[in-house]
Design a protein that fits this description.
two-stranded antiparallel sheet; alpha/beta; TIM Barrel; about 200 residues; eight-stranded parallel β-barrel
Length: about 200
């Protein structure tokens, strides 16, 4: 199966268009102010006006208020929401948009407990656990504990690069891969060479 590709941490139009031209399926925008990849909602919604069709923009939040989320998604009907905090399934459903729930992976048991908690999710994103850090750790986890029998699509994240993504896409039942820091020049600015290598590497399998 050809895995889909999400490029996260988009902060500017040039990177968005480059990712789209190389073949990204989704672009992630971080609306968590503590993140070095935070982007202002007005900037993100302006970028969306120039993104070609068939590319999904994903709005990433960490325990944000309903007002904060509404202020972003009101700018475009194209937004899918990614919840990266401690949001319950009920909180994720409030906005009547497709949503992705990010889960921080510690061990097989804790992962199993989390996986059954969001049956309404469009996909579940698995990221490495790091104390006090809600995501974007740049670290991998043991990919061997990814369930092989999930009915909800699984997105693999955490520490992916143009080098190790070739092994990552061999993991059974991976619907998509998600990268941010692994294709950057600096936090929030993409390296076009790494970006292209990552996307083409996944597509070539």
């Amino acid at each position: 199966m050809l895995q889909r590709i999400k490029i996260c941490g988009i902060t500017n139009l040039d990177d968005a268009l480059s990712a789209a031209s190389f073949g990204a399926d989704a672009l992630g925008f971080v609306f968590y102010k503590k993140s070095p990849r935070y982007v202002d909602p007005s900037v993100a919604n302006e970028i969306l006006k120039h993104i070609p069709p068939f590319i999904t923009p994903v709005a990433l939040f960490v325990d944000a208020s309903a007002e904060e989320i509404d202020a972003v998604i009101a700018g475009s009907s194209r937004w899918t929401i990614q919840f990266h905090g401690n949001e319950s399934e009920q909180e994720c459903l409030k906005f009547n948009r497709p949503y992705i729930k990010a889960l921080r992976v510690r061990d097989p048991k804790s992962l199993s407990n989390q996986l059954v908690s969001y049956p309404s999710a469009s996909a579940l994103l698995l990221d490495a656990y790091k104390e006090g850090v809600p995501g974007g750790t740049g670290e991998t986890f043991d990919w061997n504990i990814v369930p092989k029998d999930m009915t909800i699509p699984i997105i693999l994240a955490g520490g992916l690069t143009p080098v190790n993504v070739i092994e990552a896409i061999k993991i059974p039942n991976i619907y998509a891969v998600d990268v941010s820091g692994g294709v950057e020049l600096s936090k929030g600015i993409k390296d076009k060479t790494k970006l292209k290598e990552f996307i083409l590497g996944v597509k070539r399998g």
